[in-house]
Amino acid sequence: MTWVNAVIQGILLGGLYALFACGLSLMFGVMRIINLAHGDLALLGTFMVLVVSEHVGLSPFAALVIVLPGAALAGYALQYAMFNRSLRAGELSPLLASFGLAIVIANVLLEVFSADTHSLSAGALTTASWRISGQISISALSALIFGVAVLVLVSLQLMLSRTQLGRMMRATADDAATAELVGINARRVYAVATAIALATAALAGTFFGMRSSFDPTLGPAQLIFAFEAVVIGGLGSLWGTLVGGIALGLAQTVGAQAFGAGWSIFCGHVLFLAVLAFRNQGIFAPREARA
Amino acid sequence: MSILEVRELDVRHGLLQAVRGVSFSLGAGETVALVGANGAGKSTLLRTLAGAHRAAGGSVFFEGADVTRVPAYRRVGLGIGLVPEGRQLFLSLTVEENLRVAARPGYWTLERVLEAFPLLRERRRSRAVNLSGGERQATAIGRTLMANPRLLLLDEVSLGLAPVAVEGLYRSLRTVIEQGTTVLLVEQDLTRAMGTAQRVICMLEGRLVLEGRSGELTREQVTDAYFGLGRAAA
Questions:
Q1: What's the pTM value of the predicted model, to 2 decimals?
Q2: Predicted complex: ipTM over 0.85
Q3: Cβ pair A47, A217 in contact under 8 A
Q4: Cβ–Cβ of B73/A185 closer than 8 Å?
């Protein structure tokens, strides 16, 4: 039964990884930008929720109402201020620019919030759980996070495949120069993609902060988990990202069950390396590159 | 009343000057063929009119407004539509998505484009990557029409197509012209160019060397200008 529990916890954890990863996946799919600041931006969102909830006296959930639009606006501005400019200098420069941004964010967070650990309280949800049997219980918070993650990824995928904005994003991803010739403002489409990416990152960061304690140094670790989820699932497909996140979560919890808690993250990395070695297009690789 | 006026236009590709001091104007509703040898600067001129290239000098006026510095995506909204050479479709999108992504209100709707290009109807759910050359070209033209341009720029639409496909394209093009759309088309087939257009302009090494009504120009005059033989001057 402990194995079944490990599988359930792994799937639920995977939802959070997928939520972290979907913004990374979207930015790569639309602009071919690998945003190395994604983890730190998510953590910045976590801290913003912390600030708002402490200073205004709101619950972290209510603080999201302020922080998520803020993150989206910040993403829109960030695209114009940094990524659109660096894209002009070639494909590698956004990668370097985002690396620099990651360092800046991590150090500013360290300066402002010190290296102390913090946590966000989800209120009654933190301790609520459903006991299924003697050894299996599902935490209400984990279930909520998983549900929201699936909802976000499904909505994003539907937006991409069904709406005019989605068609514009996929057209721009295919060929930005031609997209301009059919009347699409490619830079604006990019800015909208980054706005969505940062809002989902802030949401994921907030859930992360409700699940466990956090400090300003944890950004890169979130980036790695998100990156692994994207690669395991296959680049450029949001369904793949969801599956990749769940696969990563499963590898970690089942690995911990099999070899001991210390092996959890190691087992996730092994799955990632195995996918790279044996199926480097990912589990769910789309037939063509799709956003 | 001219819909497009080009004054002393210069366009460079690095050190190469592809368009040199070109001036001409298009009347509203007119169909004009732009001819010239490979490398004469026809595609560059069309791409500059659409905003895909920046003009190094001179100006472009569309419906009386200076659009020389207006970016490509906004020119589409103003009413300039280019069908680029090489049918640059969005390959991962379906035919219908390629059409819909460009849609702006006006005469041309998805239904009307599918009517004008019947071969696209049964292919509307296929991804562009799986289309034949003729189907791709029809999709590219249809996509540009979806934005309801008042000025349609066609760059070598018949290049690499089977004669029957070219015939079908030109038949559909007649519907476009009948809608009152102004058309500037680059066409290698001189007979077809002079048959479709009311006026022909010819470029040689970046310059405009000949301009005249299709009925008043002889094939020889155009061919001489095309190759720069200068017989007309002798």
A1: 0.90
A2: yes
A3: no
A4: yes
